[in-house]
């Protein structure tokens, strides 16, 4: 990939983003405006972490960053839409701030994000609190983010870059409104095992939101594999290609890849060398009783960071190695975090108590064992702390990456520090060879590692730190951003001559990505005619066809359509018409059985004239097939006009099943009255007439809609037999295929499974019918790309 250099920031711009609009969404904002005690507005920015890593990237790429406005002066310095240029002294991009109510913040951020997703992703399910209201606010705020992103977009195909676990639901909503956008999301925390993730009641909804992305990134390959495990377990109709790193679901393919997050290593090294950093360190030493050697820890106050376990190890060291008393000072930079949550307030109190206990036990008049500082540090002050610390203790119980480890390494200008790193931090994958790796729960071993770091020979320290610095500089922010936008390059490389990405032209797209198109089609229509297959569409596929039952919400949605004066419904099935009518039970619907050979319009049942010959030989053929598969659990369903041979439960492959049935038909049907067709683990026996679901759709539309009106037909089906219906619509209606294996379908739209069919029908019965009553879009031609 070619890049362009930016001399002011040292950040490279991937060529794939040239001329492409960029939108970023994260919970936390990169700049905060607040009032000081004198009433003046001050500006602060995080000294480290996600937003500090992304800010220099945005300064080069420009665009809009959507985030929650958390400062008390944030909206006073912004326009009516919450927009403000940043950095304040030389604006390079726009921050669009979202105002969240206290209840929204409590439910979305302090609730679902940090009392459900955070503990689950860090493998601590017993700490999770499940509350339906949390989820309601999470989805509400995610939709607010999505609306702001769509409103901010100035083009139809922007690159939208979602950050972290706060916004798992937003991509689906952006995809609905901007189907040609390129969506990429980075998940900055670990991904849990299926056994942990499944405990979240909304796990399927979270996965559905994430799979609306084109690219989904994790820090480590193990997290990718855990995600694949969850997807496969959560959905029946999904295709996972682990070798290619892709998930195909709902007609959309998401690339899942490992993208270890780096830092701007050169910038951190530069900060550590500034006069401001040196001045801070000199004053810090004067006001604290430091020993000859200094160890440092920099953390938010969070139970995943292992701060209490670290203090236990230090106490153990001072207790068992008296020579370290008076010579080693540990500086804990702590930042208050999520103080609305009881567990976090309790943790802060516990940390402060443990610091006091250790200092009371070992401290002297001229030496303080633990210096605990919760005040704000500027970036150069933090870099000074890193540069002058002999040892860094980075010991989370679980962490997606931990950038503190990399920032410490980058600031070690003298190459003489030692990194002690938890085996449970994502950073151990790249830094573990030269760091001292510990299990923070093993107090004695942790203390031994600290002692080893303090007593390590200078030559060994320098060799290890030089290797670590090469590693950190090699996987810096530039390398990470390259991986983030590889998919953008691939997407644009397939564009046609007019510059419009054609990926929805040849590949069916999730129907949720065409909601606006559907709205426009409905606004231009006189009525809505919903036609649907039964098995695998409004009823789940089951092993025994006799156990098939219609989804209750699907029935309610279809009855909502039939109750509307401009709405009609037909159930078109391969089952016998009487059977499908009894199982569906939709009041006011038309029923077409045996692939349209039978039609029940509510007044009478008519049968296609060409079915008579098949009726005569079909019982004999069915009996012979049953005898041939007597020991194979093959089910033969005689439906009067047609028959279906089901081998879903049998130890019989499709080729053998079709060969046996074909041989029997040849022997028992000399007049060739029957025709064989293959479906999903079935073989169909039908009259050899030019009639099927396609012809049935044409008949239903012709016979039951007014000649002088234009009704929109929406046909939904999951089987190969439904392809004829899709082709019959030929752009004149909306064809929706059900399933993930839809590469060869004639339908331009897809949904993943009967659950999503139910959602679609509910939307049609609600908002869809509302659009029929909207002002007409006269003289508007709407085409599906």
From TrEMBL:
What GO CC terms are in its UniProt record?
A: cytosol
What GO terms in the biological process aspect are recorded for it? Answer: trehalose biosynthetic process
Query: Which GO MF terms are attached to this record?
Result: alpha,alpha-trehalose-phosphate synthase (UDP-forming) activity; trehalose-phosphatase activity
Pfam families in the cross-refs: Glyco_transf_20, Trehalose_PPase
The record's annotation in Gene3D superfamilies points to: Glycogen Phosphorylase B, HAD superfamily/HAD-like, Trehalose-6-phosphate phosphatase related protein, domain 2
* InterPro entries per record: Glyco_trans_20, HAD-like_sf, HAD-SF_hydro_IIB, HAD_sf, Trehalose_PPase
Q: Which family does it belong to?
A: In the C-terminal section; belongs to the trehalose phosphatase family.
In terms of NCBIfam families, this protein maps to:
HAD-SF-IIB (TIGR01484), T6PP (TIGR00685)
Q: What is this protein called?
A: Trehalose-phosphatase/alpha,alpha-trehalose-phosphate synthase [UDP-forming],TIGR02400
Q: Give the species.
A: Halobacterium jilantaiense
């Amino acid at each position: 990939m070619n890049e362009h250099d930016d001399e002011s920031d040292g950040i490279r711009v991937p060529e794939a983003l040239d001329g492409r609009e960029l939108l970023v969404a994260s919970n936390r904002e990169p700049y905060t405006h607040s009032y000081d005690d004198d009433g003046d507005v001050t500006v602060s920015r995080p000294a480290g972490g996600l937003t500090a890593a992304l800010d220099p990237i945005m300064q080069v790429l420009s665009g809009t960053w959507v985030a929650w406005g958390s400062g008390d002066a944030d909206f006073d310095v912004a326009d009516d839409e919450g927009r403000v240029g940043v950095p304040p002294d030389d604006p390079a991009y726009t921050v669009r701030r979202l105002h969240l109510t206290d209840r929204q913040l409590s439910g979305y951020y302090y609730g679902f994000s940090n009392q459900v997703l955070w503990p689950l992703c860090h493998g601590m399910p017993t700490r999770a609190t499940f509350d339906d209201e949390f989820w309601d606010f999470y989805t509400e705020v995610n939709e607010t983010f999505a609306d702001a992103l769509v409103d901010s977009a100035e083009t139809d195909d922007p690159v939208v870059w979602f950050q972290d676990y706060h916004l798992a639901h937003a991509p689906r909503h952006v995809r609905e409104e901007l189907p040609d956008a390129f969506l990429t999301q980075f998940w900055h925390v670990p991904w849990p095992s299926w056994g942990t993730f499944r405990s979240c009641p909304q796990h399927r909804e979270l996965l559905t939101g994430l799979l609306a992305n084109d690219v989904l990134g994790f820090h480590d390959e193990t997290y990718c594999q855990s995600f694949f495990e969850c997807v496969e377990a959560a959905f029946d109709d999904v295709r996972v290609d682990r070798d290619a790193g892709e998930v195909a679901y709902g007609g959309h393919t998401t690339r899942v890849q490992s993208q270890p997050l780096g830092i701007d290593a050169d910038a951190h090294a530069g900060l550590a060398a500034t006069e401001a950093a040196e001045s801070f360190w000199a004053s810090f030493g004067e006001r604290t009783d430091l020993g000859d050697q200094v160890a440092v820890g920099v953390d938010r106050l969070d139970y995943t960071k292992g701060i209490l376990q670290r203090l236990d190890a230090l106490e153990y060291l001072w207790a068992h190695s008296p020579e370290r008393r008076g010579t080693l000072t540990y500086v804990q930079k702590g930042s208050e975090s999520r103080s609305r949550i009881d567990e976090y307030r309790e943790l802060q109190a516990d940390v402060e108590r443990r610091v006091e206990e250790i200092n009371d036990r070992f401290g002297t008049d001229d030496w303080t064992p633990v210096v605990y500082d919760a005040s704000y540090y500027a970036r150069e002050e933090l870099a000074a702390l890193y540069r002058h610390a002999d040892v860094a203790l980075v010991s989370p119980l679980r962490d997606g990456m931990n950038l503190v480890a990399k920032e410490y390494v980058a600031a070690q200008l003298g190459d003489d520090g030692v990194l002690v790193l938890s085996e449970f931090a994502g950073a151990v994958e790249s830094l573990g060879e030269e760091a001292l790796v510990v299990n923070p729960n093993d107090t004695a071993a942790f203390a031994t590692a600290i002692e080893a770091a303090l007593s390590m020979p200078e030559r060994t320290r320098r060799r290890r730190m030089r290797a670590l610095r090469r590693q950190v500089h090699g996987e810096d922010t530039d390398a990470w951003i390259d991986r983030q936008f590889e998919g953008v390059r691939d997407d644009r490389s397939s564009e046609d001559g007019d510059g419009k990405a054609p990926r929805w032209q040849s590949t069916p797209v999730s129907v949720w990505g065409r909601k606006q198109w559907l709205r426009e089609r409905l606004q231009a229509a006189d009525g809505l005619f919903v036609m649907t297959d039964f098995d695998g569409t409004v009823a789940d596929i089951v092993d025994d066809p006799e156990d098939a039952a219609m989804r209750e919400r699907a029935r309610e949605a279809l009855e909502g359509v039939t109750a509307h004066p401009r709405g009609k419904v037909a159930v078109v099935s391969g089952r016998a018409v009487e059977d499908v009518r009894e199982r569906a039970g939709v009041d006011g619907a038309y029923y077409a059985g045996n692939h349209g050979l039978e039609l029940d319009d509510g007044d009478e049942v008519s049968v296609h004239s060409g079915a008579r010959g098949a009726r005569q030989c079909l019982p004999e053929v069915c009996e012979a097939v049953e005898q041939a598969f007597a020991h194979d659990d093959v089910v033969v369903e005689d439906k009067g006009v047609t028959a279906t041979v089901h081998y879903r439960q049998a130890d019989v492959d499709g080729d053998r099943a079709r060969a046996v049935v074909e041989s029997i038909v040849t022997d028992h049907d000399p007049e060739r009255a029957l025709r064989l067709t293959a479906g999903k683990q079935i073989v169909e026996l039908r009259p050899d007439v030019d009639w099927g679901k396609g012809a049935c759709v044409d008949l239903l539309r012709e016979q039951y809609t007014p000649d002088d009106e234009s009704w929109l037909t929406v046909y939904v089906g999951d089987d190969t037999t439904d392809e004829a219906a899709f082709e019959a619509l030929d752009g004149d209606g909306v064809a929706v295929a059900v399933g993930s294996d839809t590469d060869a379908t004639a339908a331009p739209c897809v949904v993943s499974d009967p659950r999503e069919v139910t959602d679609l029908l509910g939307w049609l019965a609600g908002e869809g019918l509302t659009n029929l009553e909207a002002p007409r879009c006269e003289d508007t031609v709407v085409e599906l790309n």
